[in-house]
Amino acid sequence: MKNQRLVEPENWESLSSNNAVYLLRSTDGALNIYKPISGERLGRYGIPNVHGEYAKREVAAFRVDEILGFGLVPPTAMIDGPRGRGSLQQFVPSTEARAPWHYEELQRQQMAVLDYIIGNTDRHSGNYRTCLNGRLLATDHGSSFPEKLNHFSSDFLHMYKNKSFDADVMKRLGAVDPDHLRLALEEVGLSRTAIDGALERFYQVRGGGIPDVEVVTHYIVP
Length: 222
Ligand SMILES: Nc1ncnc2c1ncn2[C@@H]1O[C@H](COP(=O)(O)OP(=O)(O)OP(=O)(O)O)[C@@H](O)[C@H]1O
Ligand SMILES: [Mg+2]
Prior knowledge:
alpha+beta, Transferase(Phosphotransferase), domain 1, 5-stranded antiparallel β-sheet, 3-stranded antiparallel β-sheet, 5 helices, binds magnesium ion
């Protein structure tokens, strides 16, 4: 995304009826998902009621995924865009979500770990998709890193409560430097409470897996 200018679309038509979500092209032709903070519809439980808090979470989820090395979340950054400050995420050509068990086991585990650490309360089939090579794609992280959490919502998380993870997932968790993780979230500008929550869940999942937390899901595992 560096040194690229963003090209304004001919019609500013939001991809979402909820928040302002626009498709912007860079001068190199690449497509991006742009969410200006002025278009955030406030009022989500557990997220501070101030514009900019969803955009920070889009970037924070990418940083966590990047540090874990899972490759589920497309590169995401905060920008001063044509409609003001907002998040910019690489657009990934993809098709609709499949039922969770149609993805590879390793990717399902990675998504469960990611959703647990970030405290995701919005991983329904509108917020994950299928890359053209069949891989899982994770999008829309404005409802993560909550300051108050009464339940998670994730189509992946609930399948791995009290289960052990593959060696590859454990190896990646073991390779994370917790100070690096905290610093990355501080750089994004999340509050101390939101960061402490993520770090606590990181230590839990690395130490003993996902505990028996309350999870809303849209699927019953067959
Ligand atoms: N990185 C991406 N690559 C490809 N498509 C994306 C990407 N991010 C979002 N989308 C698509 O854009 C649509 C809207 O994005 P998103 O879900 O992030 O916004 P939202 O504000 O939460 O909207 P809604 O409330 O409708 O879920 C999604 O349905 C998704 O298909
Ligand atoms: Mg969405």
